[in-house]
Amino acid sequence: MSDVFIVGTDASEGSERALVFALERAKLTNAKIDLVHVLEWSPYSFLTPDELAERHARRTEELSRAEAITNPIVERVRAEGIECEAVIRYGHVAETICKLAEELDAKQIFVGRTGGSSNLTSRLFGSVQMALVQAAPVAVTVVP
Q1: pLDDT tens digits, the chain, 144 residues: what are they?
Q2: Rounded distance, CA 39 to CA 30, Å?
Q3: Distance CA 40, CA 69 (A)
Q4: Which positions ≥6 away from 3 have C-beta within 8 Å?
Q5: Rounded Cα distance, 45 and 30, in Å
Q6: Which residues sit opposite 112 in a β-bridge?
Q7: Which phi and psi (to 5°) does residue 110 adopt?
Q8: Phi, psi angles (nearest 5°) of residue 83
């Protein structure tokens, strides 16, 4: 069984750099790449039937957009001769990627660095990358 690398993607330039970096390592080690896209979704809300229907419609649209992001990347990675699957989940990004690392028995997580040090939100609340570095059950590579 080959090693599994998780690559977090959000269609940003940072996630593209992480994919390229992981792809190089996967070629050297014959690892599989699981491309993870997480949609943040709050499970805590009390909605009317109309709001639930609207929420369901939005969820379907979000899944379609996520597949539109991941499917071309999966095909590109496969064209390089690397086994690749897309995994789309709802939840908190860092927590979901950590859970997937355990479920998929991943050896390493690759994410791109996004934003800058001037991003006030990241400085106040922390970033996904920092949360992964602190909580992931496997090595995390943050690609600049």
Answers
A1: 689 999 999 989 999 999 999 999 999 999 999 999 999 876 666 678 888 888 888 888 999 999 999 999 999 999 999 999 999 999 999 999 999 999 999 999 999 987 655 555 555 556 888 899 999 999 999 999
A2: 29
A3: 16
A4: 29, 30, 31, 32, 106, 107, 108
A5: 44
A6: 143
A7: -120, 130
A8: -65, 135
The residue to which tokens 């939100």 are assigned: 121
Q: Say if residues 35 and 85 touch (Cβ distance below 8 Å).
A: yes
Torsion sign, CA atoms 119, 42, 110, 37: negative
Tokens of 95: 């927590």
Between CA 144 and CA 132 the distance in angstroms is 15
Beta bridge pairs of residue 5: 33, 108
Task: List residues bridging with 141 in a β-sheet.
Answer: 110
Instruction: Note the pTM of the prediction, 2 decimals.
Output: 0.86
